[in-house]
Amino acid sequence: MLDGIVKWARAKSPWVCHLNCGSCNGCDIEIVAALMPRFDLERFGVLLEGSPRHADVLLATGPVTRQIRDRVIRIYDQTPDPKFVIAVGTCGVSGSPFAPSYNVLGGVDAAIPVDMYIPGCPPRPDAISYGVLKLLAALDPLAAKLVAEIESKQDTTGLVYTPEEMAATSES
Questions:
Q1: What pTM, to 2 d.p., does this model score?
Q2: Which of 22, 97, 127, 160 could bond to 62 as cystine, CB 3.0-4.6 Å?
Q3: Which domain does 9 fall in, by range?
């Protein structure tokens, strides 16, 4: 019974922690815009949390460098299980345009496993909202219905990618 309550609470009120790995702050501004009243992620129970120890979801932006890699892993380890990671922005997804650099390891998935990718430089706040909702759809049937409704009304191609979709796009 307790597991059911925890699962219900996690689906209805996911707390997100923003992790900046060294981005230009363009994605950070769009994350804040997604939480503001116009896009209002808080209506779905999403709450911005300052500590990874209390968060369910890590919103990671920026490329992972050699210097920050260990810190990213430590913050990921501090997040309680089950945890989810969303890579936001082109830098967070692939490390580009900095990836060819000697010090850049790549995107967030170069250090920690990623559950959802939201490309764009910077991604639009509605894409960030949609990515968080699509991630929540795995936990909550009502969020799954909302995602299906969004997908039936507008083209969401390229807004977000799951790890399987990212692997398929990199193979082709």
A1: 0.84
A2: 22
A3: 2-171
